[in-house]
From TrEMBL, chain A:
InterPro entries: DUF6029. Keywords: Signal. Pfam families: DUF6029 (PF19494). It comes from Filimonas lacunae. Residues 1-19 form the signal peptide. This is Alginate export domain-containing protein.
Automatic annotation (TrEMBL), chain B:
This is Thiol-disulfide isomerase or thioredoxin. InterPro entries: AhpC/TSA (IPR000866), Thioredoxin-like_sf (IPR036249), Thioredoxin_CS (IPR017937), Thioredoxin_domain (IPR013766), Thioredoxin_ResA/DsbE_sf (IPR050553). Keywords: Isomerase, Redox-active center, Signal. Residues 17-161 form the Thioredoxin domain. The keyword Transcription regulation does not apply. CDD domains: TlpA_like_family. GO terms for molecular function: antioxidant activity; isomerase activity; oxidoreductase activity. It comes from Filimonas lacunae. Residues 1-19 form the signal peptide. It comes from the Bacteria.
Amino acid sequence: MKKALFTLGLGLGASVAQAQLEQLAQGHLSGSFDSYTQYYRKDDKILAVPPQDKIGSNNFFKLDYTYKQFSAGIQYEAYLPAVQGFPFLGTKQGRNEGKLVNRYFRYSGDKVSLQVGDFYEQFGSGLVFRSWENRQIGINNALEGVNVQIQPTDFLKLKVVYGRPREYFDYADATVRGADADINLSRMFVKRPTAVNVTGGLSYVSRYQEYTGADDKFPATVNAYAARLAIEGANASLGVEYVHKGQDPHVANVFSDDNGKALLINGAYTAGKFGVNLTYRGISNMDWRSDRNAEGTVLPMNYVPALTKQHDYLTTNIYVYNAQVAGETGGQLDVFVNLGSSKLSVNYSQYNALKTPGSIFSPDSSFFKDGSIEWKKKWNSKWQSILSYHYVFYNKHVIEGGNDKSITSHIGLANILYKYAPRKSARLELQHLYTKEDRGNWAAAVTEFTFAPMLSVYASDLYNYGTTKVHYYNIGGSIMKDATRFSLAYGRQRAGLFCVGGVCRYVPAASGLTATLTITFNN
Amino acid sequence: MKKMYAWLLGSFLCVASYAQENFPSVSVKTLGGQSVDFSKLVSGSGDTAVVVSFWATWCVPCVTELDNINDVFADWQKEKPFKLLAISIDDARTSQRVKTFVKGKGWGFDVLTDVNNDLKRALNINDVPHVLIIKNNKVVYQHTGYVAGNEDELFTKIKTL
C-alpha cells in the first residue's frame, strides 16, 4: 500500500512538473517595437535647417513576460540620432546611441507586490509625484530601485518607493523616496456596500541631491506632502487634493526660497443624458525636479498638466496652453449632453497669474482663456459631422517667452465623414482661425480616404495667409494590419509647442519625410 | 510522512490549476472609483469573448469608433454576446472628464480607467485606438488604428470565435 502510494506520488510529481513546464510556455508574452524616423530637407520658406546627416530616428523595443504572479521585462532604446527638438541630452545630440534602459522583475500577490528595477508610479493625481513615460515629448523619469505595495486589509493600500530617477541613458544624481497610503474610508467604517464611496489618501515624497556650494542653509533634501479626499455617489462626485512642498531653490524657479503649494478640486455631476465637470487648480512654485539644474521637460518629479481642453486639429493646436508651474490659478468647465443622434459638448477654461506670490486664490491678469462648443451629429449610416467653434485668448509673452503681445483668436471648424461603401469612407475637414494679432489668419483643409481594414491616405494644408503666406502642406498614408501600423508622410512641420497630455516641448520647423512603425504583440 | 507528501502534492496541484490568470496583474479603476485586477476581470469571463478597447477622451478616431460600436452594440449582443471593456488611457489631465464624457455619450458598455497607463504599458500598446479580443485567456485578435468600417471587421471576427 505504501509503495503504491509512493509510486502514485512520484507519478503525480512528474505530471505536475510536466504541467508546470507546459504552463511556463503558456505565460503571457507581450512586446512592442516603436520607430519614428525623419529625413530632413532644407526649406528656406519655413526656416527649416536640417542637421548634418539629415536624419533623426527614435526607436523603442520592449518585452514583458508574465507567468502566474511573476513578471519581468526590458526596454531598449536607440537614437540614430534623436529627432530634432527631442530633449535628449545636449551633449548626445547628433550621436548614434542605443542602450538597454529599463529592466524589472515583479512579484504581484493578492496582498503584496514587489518590483525591483525600473518602474513607473504615481501618487494621487501626480501633482506630488509621478514617474512616467511619454515617447513623443521625450519624458521618461522611471525610478530605478524598489517599489513595494501592501494591502493589509481591504480598505488600505500602502506603497513605498525608493530609487534614482532615469535621465535619458543615465541616472540623475538624486535619490527619491516616497510613501503613499490609499484609504477607503467607506469600507473602513461601514462593512457593507454603501451608496456613497469615500476614499482618502496621504503621500510623502522626498528628494535628496547633494549640495556642495557655499550656502550652509541650502536644502539638499526637499520634502513634499499631499493629502486627498474623494466622495463619489451615483450621480455626483467631489475630489480635493492639496500638496505642500518644502523649500527647493533651483535654476527653473530662480533660486526661490518659497514653499510650493497646490490645490486641486474636481467636481462632477451627471443626470440623465447630461454630464458636467468643474475643475479648479491653483499652484505656486510647483516646478519640482530631481536635479536642481534641470529645465524644460527634463527630470520632472511631479506632473502638472495644463488643465484645458486637449485639442486635435491643425488650427486649434496653434495656441495651446502650457501650465505655468511658477504660479497660476484657474479652472475648467466641461458640459456633455447626449441628444440621441447628436452630442453636444461645451468647454471653458481660464488661467490667471497670481496677484500675490504664494497666494493661490488671488487672480491677476489672464494667461489663457479657451471657450469652445462642439456639436457631433450622425445623420444616417452614411453621413456624420462635427462642427465646432473656439475662442482662444493666449498670452504669448508668458506662455512662450519673449516680447510678444497677447493674442485673441476665433476658430471655426467642420469635420465631415461620408461612408460611401461598407468599408470605404471619405473625410473632409475645413478650418479657419481668425486673429488680428501675431501672424494673422490661418486656413486649413484635410481630406482623408480610408479603405477598411487596412489603408488610409490623406492630404492636408495649413495656410497662414495673414502675414507669412506659407503653406504647411502634408501628404501621407498608413497601412494597418492587425497590431502593426506603418505610416509615411511628406511635408512641412510648423515650429512651436508640441504638447501631449498638457506637457509641451518646443519643436523646430522641419521639412521632409517621416516614417513611423509600431508593432505590438500579445500571445 | 507519506501522508504529508500526498498533502503537499495535492496542494501543489491546487496551486498549479488555480493559477490560470496569465495576464499581468494590473489594477484599473471602474468609473465608481473601485480598483479591479485586469487579469481577474479577463479570466472571469470564461468562454465569452472580451473586447478590450484602449481609447482617450481627446482621441477623435477612438471616440468615433466607440460611438459607432455603441450604435449597434445592442443588436450585436443579441446576435453573439461578448463583453466590451473600454479602457481609457486619459491621465490626470483629462481622467476627471471620463465619467461625465461617457454619460454624455450614453455608452452602454463597461468603461475603466488606466490613469498612469500601467495596463497600456503591460500590454505594450503604443497608440490609441487599439483593440484586442481575448478569449479563454488568450489574445486572439488585435488591431491598431481606426478607419470607418473597422467595427464590422471586429464583429465578423467575434462571430467566428
